[in-house]
């Protein structure tokens, strides 16, 4: 338990001084809790002595004591307020920074990171786990550290009256801490199972929500629900198991404290009967026995929460410590934008996907990459943008090895238009502006006009401020594609990587998309995963890929004469486009 508290304190870093000042206020807060009880005992003792004619009471003393109690109450509220001001907001400030930092980390890790860490795990870390830390991190420090500060301060106050009573209270605290220790050991095993089941629950819920159209179209609602039900059942079972494991230690913890309270009452009565303690002080000790353990009684709940926080922090740290792909990179400014693959080999895990691939792309030319499905076309594009690190060989842009760049300085030079467009759950304006966050509204509109999407955007009642829903749910495939092209036009990078749409888009949309692409690619270095015959034929260079190797390289008029994969591929495409009745 204390190890985890220490871990949170280390994590708090620069805010430590505020935390420690908060502890000082906590100490004084506990004194202000004890002072009125002690003053009350003192007053009762004077009244008792007066009643027994031992010593006449001076009324001014009663006034002083009342004033003292009043000031203690004020002091108690003030210290409690100061502690809260100093400590409570620390965690909110920290987690906000942490979220931004994690966002930054995720931007700089290789894409392979997202395969080895399931999206459900990453999502729960950034959302649930950090929120959990946010909600409970500081509360737990308050419960445990301030709880113990309070109990030890009160025990210290007891020492002034009777050392045996203070010692009995200490024994109660020691036994209850032992119970908490065992509770912590049990909790350690359960918390990771608990978090895993939570992450499975989130994962299966996300999967279900994303797959609703497929589930509906295949009529598999029951099958999909079964996965979620299984995850929820698992979560229920682990929660019940945790509760069952906790009960005995919870009881032992409370039993130790309550027994110590009873012992305090018993000993006070014993000392009073023996004449070692006055009756008013006995009454005061009895009041003490009720309040002394109040702050540590709830620590049992903190133990499990702390273990959960510990496991959460492991998960968050795993993301934070992920190795940046550009850790040794620097900010490089390019003057030329030709691209060179020099004997590049690359594998996903152990699956070799590109095998000694070499080619050159001259600046301001168009290179079409063609090849069967799975031959490695998309992989080549992803490697230019350094989404993954290669196994061997080198990739150069403008004669600079891409390994020497930071991600930001490399990607500044590259615009990518994917087949599967991702749009954010935001306005159309912001989705386009994403290409250049510094762009003005006019620049966004100019880019949209070039991308042939201005007219359809203006047909919406809210125009550019139309919210387009998650992943652009309210737009057609062609419209989404044009918005993503507008985004790329706005970015205005010298290198454009394009994955030409294969999905059947109606001829009108296809015409607009083609016009938009012409605007985007004008005067740029273009790498295009090409499917249309016109694109392939007009390219300055065609790379024919098969099974991770370049099997043909050249221009259309040369390659068509060879009896190779290119000719075969073109025949297939011709037939396909003929079937679609498209002009090339
Ligand atoms: N993220 C990944 N993890 C593991 N293997 C992958 C991953 N992405 C692609 N592959 C595999 O690498 C090979 C090449 O994939 P790639 O997507 O580059 O091919 P492609 O030529 O673009 O295919 P398509 O035309 O179907 O899009 C395939 O065998 C694919 O299964």
TrEMBL record:
| InterPro entries on file | AAA+_ATPase, ABC1_TM_dom, ABC1_TM_sf, ABC_transporter-like_ATP-bd, ABC_transporter-like_CS, P-loop_NTPase, Type_1_exporter
Q: What is its main location?
A: membrane
> What is the protein's membrane topology class?
Multi-pass membrane protein
Q: Which segments cross the bilayer?
A: 23-48, 60-79, 145-163, 169-185, 251-273, 279-299
Location(s), subcellular: Cell membrane
Q: Pinpoint the ABC transporter domain residues.
A: 339-572
UniProt-listed Gene3D superfamilies: ABC transporter type 1, transmembrane domain, P-loop containing nucleotide triphosphate hydrolases
Q: Which GO terms describe its molecular function?
A: ABC-type transporter activity; ATP binding; ATP hydrolysis activity; ATPase-coupled lipid transmembrane transporter activity
The keyword Chloroplast is annotated on this UniProt entry: no
Would I find Transmembrane among this entry's keywords?
yes
Cellular component, GO, one term: plasma membrane
Q: Which UniProt keywords apply?
A: ATP-binding, Membrane, Nucleotide-binding, Transmembrane, Transmembrane helix, Transport
Q: Where is the ABC transmembrane type-1 domain?
A: 30-308
Protein known as: ATP-binding cassette subfamily B protein
Give the source species. Answer: Oceanotoga teriensis
Lineage, opening ranks:
Bacteria, Thermotogati, Thermotogota, Thermotogae, Petrotogales
């Amino acid at each position: 338990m204390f190890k985890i508290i220490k871990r949170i304190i280390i994590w708090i870093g620069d805010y430590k001084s505020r935390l420690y000042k908060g502890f000082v206020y906590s100490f004084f807060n506990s004194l202000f809790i004890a002072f009125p009880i002690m003053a009350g005992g003192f007053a009762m003792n004077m009244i008792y002595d007066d009643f027994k004619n031992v010593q006449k009471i001076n009324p001014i003393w009663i006034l002083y004591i009342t004033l003292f109690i009043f000031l203690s109450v004020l002091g108690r509220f003030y210290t409690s307020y100061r502690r809260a001001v100093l400590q409570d907001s620390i965690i909110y400030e920290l987690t906000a920074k942490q979220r931004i930092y994690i966002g930054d980390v995720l931007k700089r890790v290789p894409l392979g990171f997202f395969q080895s860490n399931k999206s459900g795990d990453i999502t729960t870390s950034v959302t649930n786990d950090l929120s959990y830390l946010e909600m409970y991190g500081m509360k737990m420090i308050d419960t445990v550290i301030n709880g113990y500060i309070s109990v030890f301060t009160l025990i210290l106050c007891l020492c002034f009256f009777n050392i045996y009573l203070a010692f009995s209270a200490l024994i109660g605290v020691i036994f209850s801490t032992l119970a908490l220790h065992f509770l912590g050991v049990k909790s350690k095993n359960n918390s990771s199972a608990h978090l895993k089941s939570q992450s499975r629950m989130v994962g299966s819920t996300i999967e279900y929500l994303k797959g609703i159209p497929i589930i509906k179209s295949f009529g598999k609602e029951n099958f999909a629900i079964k996965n979620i039900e299984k995850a929820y059942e698992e979560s229920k079972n682990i929660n019940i198991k945790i509760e069952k494991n906790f009960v005995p230690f919870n009881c032992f913890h409370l039993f130790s404290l309550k027994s110590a309270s009873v012992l305090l009452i018993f000993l006070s009565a014993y000392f009073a009967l023996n004449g070692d303690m006055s009756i008013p002080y006995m009454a005061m000790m009895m009041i003490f026995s009720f309040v002394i353990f109040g702050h540590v009684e709830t620590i049992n709940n903190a133990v499990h929460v702390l273990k959960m926080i510990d496991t959460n922090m492991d998960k968050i740290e795993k993301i934070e410590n992920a190795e940046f792909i550009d850790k040794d990179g620097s900010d490089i400014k390019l003057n030329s934008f030709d691209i060179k693959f020099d004997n590049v080999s690359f594998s996903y895990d152990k699956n070799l996907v590109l095998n000694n691939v070499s080619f050159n792309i001259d600046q301001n030319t168009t290179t079409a990459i063609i090849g069967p499905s799975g031959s490695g076309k998309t992989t080549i594009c992803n490697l230019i943008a350094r989404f993954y690190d290669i196994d061997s060989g080198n990739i150069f842009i403008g004669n600079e090895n891409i390994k020497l760049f930071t991600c930001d300085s490399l990607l500044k030079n590259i615009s990518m238009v994917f087949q599967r467009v991702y749009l954010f759950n935001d306005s159309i304006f912001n989705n386009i502006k994403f290409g250049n966050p510094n762009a003005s509204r006019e620049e966004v509109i100019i880019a949209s006009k070039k991308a042939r999407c201005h007219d359809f955007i203006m047909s919406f009642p809210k125009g550019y401020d139309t919210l387009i829903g998650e992943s652009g749910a309210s737009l057609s495939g062609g419209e989404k594609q044009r918005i993503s092209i507008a985004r790329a036009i706005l970015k205005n990078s010298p290198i454009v990587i394009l994955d030409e749409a294969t999905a059947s888009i109606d001829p009108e949309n296809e015409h607009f998309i083609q016009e938009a692409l012409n605007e985007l690619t004008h005067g740029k270095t273009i790498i295009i995963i090409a499917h249309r015959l016109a694109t392939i034929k007009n390219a300055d260079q065609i790379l024919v890929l098969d099974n991770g190797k370049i099997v043909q390289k050249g221009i259309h008029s040369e390659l068509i004469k060879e009896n190779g994969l290119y000719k075969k591929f073109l025949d297939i495409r011709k037939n396909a486009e003929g079937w679609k009745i498209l002009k090339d």
